[in-house]
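PROTEIN–LIGAND DATA SHEET

This sheet pairs a single protein chain with one bound small molecule, NAP, given as SMILES. Inputs appear in the order they were entered. The predicted three-dimensional arrangement of chain and ligand is reported afterwards as a C-alpha coordinate string under its own label.
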Amino acid sequence: MSEVLVQVAAAGVNRPDLRQRSGHYPPPPGVTDIPGLEISGTIVALGADVGEWSVGDRVCALVAGGGYAEFCVVPSGQCLPVPEQFSHIEAAALPETFFTVWHNLFERAALKAGETVLIHGGASGIGTTAIQLARAFGADVFVTAGTDEKCESCLVLGAREAFNYRTGDFVAQVAQATSGRGVDVILDMVAGPYVARNLTCLAIGGRLSIIALQGGRSAEIDLETLMRRRMTITASTLRPQPVLDKARIAASLRSQVWPLLEQGRIKPVVHAIFPFDQAAAAHAELERGEHVGKVMLSVE
Ligand SMILES: NC(=O)c1ccc[n+]([C@@H]2O[C@H](COP(=O)([O-])OP(=O)(O)OC[C@H]3O[C@@H](n4cnc5c(N)ncnc54)[C@H](OP(=O)(O)O)[C@@H]3O)[C@@H](O)[C@H]2O)c1
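PREDICTION REPORTED AS:
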Protein backbone atom coordinates (compact mmCIF):
# COMPACT_ATOMS: atom_id res chain seq x y z
CA MET A 1 0.00 0.00 0.00
CA SER A 2 1.83 3.08 -1.20
CA GLU A 3 -0.97 5.52 -0.52
CA VAL A 4 -1.43 8.31 2.00
CA LEU A 5 -4.62 9.63 3.60
CA VAL A 6 -4.86 13.42 3.40
CA GLN A 7 -7.16 15.60 5.49
CA VAL A 8 -8.21 18.05 2.82
CA ALA A 9 -7.84 21.80 3.45
CA ALA A 10 -8.48 23.07 -0.08
CA ALA A 11 -9.31 21.76 -3.54
CA GLY A 12 -9.14 23.20 -7.03
CA VAL A 13 -12.13 23.44 -9.36
CA ASN A 14 -11.25 22.60 -12.94
CA ARG A 15 -13.19 22.63 -16.19
CA PRO A 16 -13.03 18.81 -16.33
CA ASP A 17 -15.12 18.81 -13.08
CA LEU A 18 -17.87 20.66 -14.98
CA ARG A 19 -17.66 18.13 -17.79
CA GLN A 20 -17.85 15.25 -15.29
CA ARG A 21 -20.90 16.82 -13.62
CA SER A 22 -22.65 17.13 -16.99
CA GLY A 23 -21.95 13.47 -17.77
CA HIS A 24 -19.26 13.96 -20.41
CA TYR A 25 -16.13 13.01 -18.47
CA PRO A 26 -16.68 9.86 -16.41
CA PRO A 27 -14.05 8.93 -13.81
CA PRO A 28 -11.63 6.18 -14.91
CA PRO A 29 -12.60 2.64 -13.83
CA GLY A 30 -12.23 2.12 -10.09
CA VAL A 31 -12.13 5.84 -9.27
CA THR A 32 -14.77 7.45 -7.06
CA ASP A 33 -17.37 9.60 -8.80
CA ILE A 34 -16.89 12.33 -6.19
CA PRO A 35 -15.37 15.20 -8.23
CA GLY A 36 -12.08 16.95 -7.56
CA LEU A 37 -8.72 16.47 -9.29
CA GLU A 38 -6.39 18.36 -6.95
CA ILE A 39 -6.11 18.97 -3.24
CA SER A 40 -3.90 20.23 -0.48
CA GLY A 41 -3.96 19.25 3.15
CA THR A 42 -2.20 17.34 5.89
CA ILE A 43 -1.22 13.67 5.84
CA VAL A 44 -3.06 11.84 8.63
CA ALA A 45 -2.19 8.19 7.82
CA LEU A 46 0.35 6.26 5.76
CA GLY A 47 0.17 3.00 3.84
CA ALA A 48 2.63 0.28 4.80
CA ASP A 49 4.97 0.94 1.84
CA VAL A 50 5.22 4.71 2.20
CA GLY A 51 8.69 5.84 3.24
CA GLU A 52 8.90 9.31 1.80
CA TRP A 53 6.15 11.05 3.77
CA SER A 54 5.26 11.37 7.45
CA VAL A 55 2.02 11.98 9.30
CA GLY A 56 1.67 15.77 9.69
CA ASP A 57 3.35 16.67 6.38
CA ARG A 58 1.62 19.43 4.40
CA VAL A 59 1.18 18.24 0.82
CA CYS A 60 -0.64 19.06 -2.36
CA ALA A 61 -1.60 16.25 -4.69
CA LEU A 62 -2.99 15.30 -8.06
CA VAL A 63 -5.91 12.87 -7.70
CA ALA A 64 -7.98 11.04 -10.29
CA GLY A 65 -11.16 12.04 -8.40
CA GLY A 66 -12.49 12.52 -4.88
CA GLY A 67 -10.92 15.89 -4.09
CA TYR A 68 -14.17 17.55 -2.95
CA ALA A 69 -14.06 15.70 0.36
CA GLU A 70 -12.87 15.93 3.96
CA PHE A 71 -10.38 13.09 3.45
CA CYS A 72 -8.79 11.81 0.28
CA VAL A 73 -6.60 8.75 -0.40
CA VAL A 74 -3.70 9.60 -2.72
CA PRO A 75 -0.93 7.51 -4.29
CA SER A 76 2.16 8.77 -2.43
CA GLY A 77 4.03 9.52 -5.66
CA GLN A 78 1.37 12.03 -6.68
CA CYS A 79 1.99 14.17 -3.59
CA LEU A 80 4.29 17.16 -3.57
CA PRO A 81 5.29 19.29 -0.60
CA VAL A 82 3.39 22.53 -0.06
CA PRO A 83 5.94 25.12 -1.20
CA GLU A 84 7.37 27.25 1.59
CA GLN A 85 5.26 30.36 2.32
CA PHE A 86 2.28 28.90 0.39
CA SER A 87 -1.20 28.74 1.90
CA HIS A 88 -3.18 25.54 1.44
CA ILE A 89 -5.37 27.35 -1.08
CA GLU A 90 -2.38 28.39 -3.19
CA ALA A 91 -0.93 24.88 -2.96
CA ALA A 92 -4.19 23.22 -4.05
CA ALA A 93 -4.19 25.49 -7.11
CA LEU A 94 -0.98 23.84 -8.37
CA PRO A 95 -1.34 20.14 -9.25
CA GLU A 96 -3.85 19.92 -12.12
CA THR A 97 -2.47 22.77 -14.21
CA PHE A 98 1.21 22.24 -13.38
CA PHE A 99 1.13 18.49 -14.17
CA THR A 100 -0.82 19.18 -17.38
CA VAL A 101 1.31 22.06 -18.62
CA TRP A 102 4.60 20.41 -17.71
CA HIS A 103 3.67 17.18 -19.45
CA ASN A 104 2.17 18.71 -22.59
CA LEU A 105 4.27 21.81 -23.15
CA PHE A 106 7.70 20.67 -21.98
CA GLU A 107 7.69 16.86 -22.20
CA ARG A 108 5.47 16.14 -25.21
CA ALA A 109 5.98 19.36 -27.21
CA ALA A 110 9.59 19.78 -25.98
CA LEU A 111 9.39 23.57 -25.56
CA LYS A 112 12.90 24.99 -25.12
CA ALA A 113 14.50 28.27 -24.09
CA GLY A 114 14.62 30.74 -26.96
CA GLU A 115 11.57 29.25 -28.69
CA THR A 116 8.18 30.87 -29.25
CA VAL A 117 4.88 29.44 -28.02
CA LEU A 118 1.21 30.28 -28.64
CA ILE A 119 -1.08 29.43 -25.72
CA HIS A 120 -4.80 29.42 -26.42
CA GLY A 121 -7.03 30.33 -23.48
CA GLY A 122 -4.23 32.31 -21.84
CA ALA A 123 -6.45 33.51 -19.00
CA SER A 124 -7.64 30.02 -18.00
CA GLY A 125 -6.25 28.08 -15.06
CA ILE A 126 -4.14 26.13 -17.53
CA GLY A 127 -3.22 29.25 -19.49
CA THR A 128 -2.03 31.33 -16.53
CA THR A 129 0.24 28.46 -15.49
CA ALA A 130 1.48 27.91 -19.04
CA ILE A 131 2.39 31.58 -19.54
CA GLN A 132 4.43 31.68 -16.34
CA LEU A 133 6.20 28.35 -16.88
CA ALA A 134 7.02 29.11 -20.51
CA ARG A 135 8.46 32.49 -19.52
CA ALA A 136 10.38 31.04 -16.59
CA PHE A 137 12.03 28.52 -18.91
CA GLY A 138 13.01 31.17 -21.43
CA ALA A 139 10.32 30.96 -24.11
CA ASP A 140 8.63 33.92 -25.79
CA VAL A 141 4.86 33.72 -25.24
CA PHE A 142 1.84 34.68 -27.33
CA VAL A 143 -1.69 33.99 -26.13
CA THR A 144 -5.30 34.16 -27.21
CA ALA A 145 -8.12 35.20 -24.87
CA GLY A 146 -11.73 36.26 -25.24
CA THR A 147 -11.72 39.82 -23.85
CA ASP A 148 -9.32 42.76 -23.82
CA GLU A 149 -9.24 42.61 -20.00
CA LYS A 150 -8.15 38.97 -20.11
CA CYS A 151 -5.53 39.85 -22.72
CA GLU A 152 -4.19 42.52 -20.38
CA SER A 153 -3.95 39.99 -17.52
CA CYS A 154 -1.94 37.67 -19.76
CA LEU A 155 0.50 40.48 -20.59
CA VAL A 156 0.96 41.16 -16.87
CA LEU A 157 1.79 37.47 -16.37
CA GLY A 158 4.54 37.68 -18.99
CA ALA A 159 3.03 37.15 -22.44
CA ARG A 160 4.71 39.23 -25.15
CA GLU A 161 1.48 39.71 -27.10
CA ALA A 162 -2.13 38.74 -26.39
CA PHE A 163 -4.70 38.37 -29.17
CA ASN A 164 -8.41 38.82 -28.52
CA TYR A 165 -9.76 35.96 -30.62
CA ARG A 166 -13.25 37.48 -30.69
CA THR A 167 -12.13 40.69 -32.39
CA GLY A 168 -9.14 39.54 -34.46
CA ASP A 169 -7.68 36.66 -36.44
CA PHE A 170 -4.93 35.01 -34.40
CA VAL A 171 -3.46 33.39 -37.53
CA ALA A 172 -2.74 36.78 -39.11
CA GLN A 173 -1.63 38.22 -35.77
CA VAL A 174 0.89 35.43 -35.14
CA ALA A 175 2.21 35.80 -38.68
CA GLN A 176 2.70 39.51 -38.14
CA ALA A 177 4.25 39.11 -34.67
CA THR A 178 6.75 36.51 -35.91
CA SER A 179 7.50 38.15 -39.28
CA GLY A 180 5.86 35.23 -41.05
CA ARG A 181 8.00 32.54 -39.38
CA GLY A 182 5.32 31.13 -37.08
CA VAL A 183 5.72 29.81 -33.53
CA ASP A 184 7.62 26.70 -32.44
CA VAL A 185 4.93 25.30 -30.15
CA ILE A 186 1.16 25.72 -29.67
CA LEU A 187 -0.78 24.62 -26.58
CA ASP A 188 -4.35 24.15 -27.79
CA MET A 189 -7.45 23.66 -25.64
CA VAL A 190 -9.89 24.40 -28.48
CA ALA A 191 -9.13 21.93 -31.34
CA GLY A 192 -11.94 21.46 -33.94
CA PRO A 193 -11.49 24.20 -36.55
CA TYR A 194 -8.48 25.57 -34.62
CA VAL A 195 -6.33 22.58 -35.65
CA ALA A 196 -5.92 23.61 -39.29
CA ARG A 197 -5.50 27.26 -38.29
CA ASN A 198 -2.86 26.24 -35.74
CA LEU A 199 -0.85 24.41 -38.40
CA THR A 200 -0.81 27.66 -40.41
CA CYS A 201 0.73 29.37 -37.35
CA LEU A 202 3.49 26.80 -36.77
CA ALA A 203 7.10 27.31 -37.83
CA ILE A 204 8.97 24.55 -39.68
CA GLY A 205 9.55 21.76 -37.16
CA GLY A 206 6.73 23.14 -34.99
CA ARG A 207 4.79 21.08 -32.43
CA LEU A 208 1.07 21.29 -31.74
CA SER A 209 -0.03 19.96 -28.35
CA ILE A 210 -3.79 19.41 -27.97
CA ILE A 211 -5.21 19.16 -24.44
CA ALA A 212 -8.94 19.78 -24.91
CA LEU A 213 -11.65 19.72 -27.56
CA GLN A 214 -13.82 22.72 -26.66
CA GLY A 215 -14.21 23.54 -30.37
CA GLY A 216 -14.95 19.96 -31.48
CA ARG A 217 -13.35 16.52 -31.75
CA SER A 218 -12.95 16.44 -35.54
CA ALA A 219 -10.59 18.38 -37.76
CA GLU A 220 -9.62 18.42 -41.40
CA ILE A 221 -5.97 19.16 -42.02
CA ASP A 222 -3.59 19.21 -44.95
CA LEU A 223 -1.17 16.34 -44.31
CA GLU A 224 1.08 17.56 -47.10
CA THR A 225 1.75 20.73 -45.06
CA LEU A 226 2.43 18.57 -42.02
CA MET A 227 5.05 16.56 -43.93
CA ARG A 228 6.62 19.39 -45.88
CA ARG A 229 7.03 21.57 -42.76
CA ARG A 230 8.03 18.59 -40.56
CA MET A 231 5.41 19.30 -37.90
CA THR A 232 4.32 17.16 -34.98
CA ILE A 233 0.82 16.90 -33.49
CA THR A 234 0.58 15.42 -30.01
CA ALA A 235 -2.39 15.11 -27.65
CA SER A 236 -2.95 13.72 -24.20
CA THR A 237 -5.21 13.70 -21.21
CA LEU A 238 -3.79 13.44 -17.72
CA ARG A 239 -6.48 11.73 -15.67
CA PRO A 240 -6.33 8.16 -17.05
CA GLN A 241 -2.53 7.96 -17.02
CA PRO A 242 -1.00 5.26 -14.78
CA VAL A 243 0.07 6.20 -11.25
CA LEU A 244 3.73 5.58 -12.13
CA ASP A 245 3.57 8.07 -15.02
CA LYS A 246 1.98 10.69 -12.77
CA ALA A 247 4.63 10.02 -10.13
CA ARG A 248 7.33 10.54 -12.76
CA ILE A 249 5.79 13.91 -13.72
CA ALA A 250 5.59 14.81 -10.01
CA ALA A 251 9.30 14.04 -9.55
CA SER A 252 10.18 16.18 -12.53
CA LEU A 253 8.04 19.06 -11.23
CA ARG A 254 9.63 18.77 -7.80
CA SER A 255 13.17 19.06 -9.12
CA GLN A 256 12.61 21.60 -11.88
CA VAL A 257 9.55 23.70 -11.02
CA TRP A 258 9.15 23.61 -7.22
CA PRO A 259 12.34 25.69 -6.71
CA LEU A 260 10.76 28.45 -8.86
CA LEU A 261 7.65 28.41 -6.66
CA GLU A 262 9.79 28.47 -3.49
CA GLN A 263 11.73 31.44 -4.87
CA GLY A 264 8.50 33.29 -5.66
CA ARG A 265 9.36 33.47 -9.38
CA ILE A 266 6.01 31.94 -10.36
CA LYS A 267 2.78 31.53 -8.43
CA PRO A 268 -0.70 30.26 -9.12
CA VAL A 269 -3.32 32.85 -10.02
CA VAL A 270 -6.31 32.42 -7.68
CA HIS A 271 -9.44 34.16 -8.96
CA ALA A 272 -12.05 33.17 -6.35
CA ILE A 273 -12.40 31.01 -3.23
CA PHE A 274 -15.62 29.31 -2.13
CA PRO A 275 -16.37 27.20 0.96
CA PHE A 276 -16.75 23.50 0.17
CA ASP A 277 -20.50 23.59 0.76
CA GLN A 278 -20.78 26.13 -2.07
CA ALA A 279 -19.17 23.91 -4.73
CA ALA A 280 -22.19 24.53 -6.98
CA ALA A 281 -21.51 28.29 -6.84
CA ALA A 282 -17.85 27.62 -7.63
CA HIS A 283 -18.90 25.64 -10.72
CA ALA A 284 -21.24 28.48 -11.74
CA GLU A 285 -18.36 30.93 -11.41
CA LEU A 286 -16.20 28.84 -13.77
CA GLU A 287 -19.15 28.46 -16.14
CA ARG A 288 -19.64 32.25 -16.30
CA GLY A 289 -16.18 32.31 -17.86
CA GLU A 290 -15.09 35.69 -16.54
CA HIS A 291 -12.31 34.33 -14.35
CA VAL A 292 -8.58 34.73 -14.80
CA GLY A 293 -6.77 31.78 -13.20
CA LYS A 294 -8.21 29.34 -10.70
CA VAL A 295 -11.44 28.90 -8.77
CA MET A 296 -10.87 27.19 -5.42
CA LEU A 297 -12.73 25.44 -2.61
CA SER A 298 -11.54 25.86 0.98
CA VAL A 299 -12.47 24.63 4.45
CA GLU A 300 -10.87 27.73 6.05
N1 LIG B 1 -5.63 17.17 -21.36
C1 LIG B 1 -5.51 17.34 -20.07
O1 LIG B 1 -4.81 16.57 -19.41
C2 LIG B 1 -6.22 18.47 -19.38
C3 LIG B 1 -6.04 18.67 -18.00
C4 LIG B 1 -6.71 19.76 -17.41
C5 LIG B 1 -7.51 20.60 -18.17
N2 LIG B 1 -7.68 20.32 -19.50
C6 LIG B 1 -8.54 21.20 -20.33
O2 LIG B 1 -7.90 22.44 -20.45
C7 LIG B 1 -8.89 23.47 -20.61
C8 LIG B 1 -8.65 24.55 -19.59
O3 LIG B 1 -8.97 24.04 -18.31
P1 LIG B 1 -9.18 25.03 -17.08
O4 LIG B 1 -9.56 24.21 -15.92
O5 LIG B 1 -8.01 25.92 -17.02
O6 LIG B 1 -10.49 25.79 -17.59
P2 LIG B 1 -10.95 27.30 -17.66
O7 LIG B 1 -10.17 28.14 -16.70
O8 LIG B 1 -12.41 27.30 -17.53
O9 LIG B 1 -10.55 27.70 -19.13
C9 LIG B 1 -11.24 27.44 -20.29
C10 LIG B 1 -10.65 28.41 -21.30
O10 LIG B 1 -10.96 28.04 -22.63
C11 LIG B 1 -10.85 29.22 -23.38
N3 LIG B 1 -11.48 29.13 -24.69
C12 LIG B 1 -12.69 28.61 -24.99
N4 LIG B 1 -12.89 28.75 -26.33
C13 LIG B 1 -11.79 29.38 -26.83
C14 LIG B 1 -11.40 29.81 -28.12
N5 LIG B 1 -12.20 29.62 -29.18
N6 LIG B 1 -10.18 30.39 -28.29
C15 LIG B 1 -9.36 30.58 -27.24
N7 LIG B 1 -9.68 30.20 -25.97
C16 LIG B 1 -10.88 29.61 -25.78
C17 LIG B 1 -11.56 30.24 -22.51
O11 LIG B 1 -11.07 31.50 -22.89
P3 LIG B 1 -11.95 32.84 -22.82
O12 LIG B 1 -12.74 32.79 -21.56
O13 LIG B 1 -10.91 33.90 -22.85
O14 LIG B 1 -12.86 32.84 -24.01
C18 LIG B 1 -11.13 29.84 -21.11
O15 LIG B 1 -10.05 30.64 -20.65
C19 LIG B 1 -10.26 22.79 -20.43
O16 LIG B 1 -10.83 22.59 -21.69
C20 LIG B 1 -9.91 21.47 -19.75
O17 LIG B 1 -10.84 20.48 -20.03
C21 LIG B 1 -7.05 19.30 -20.11
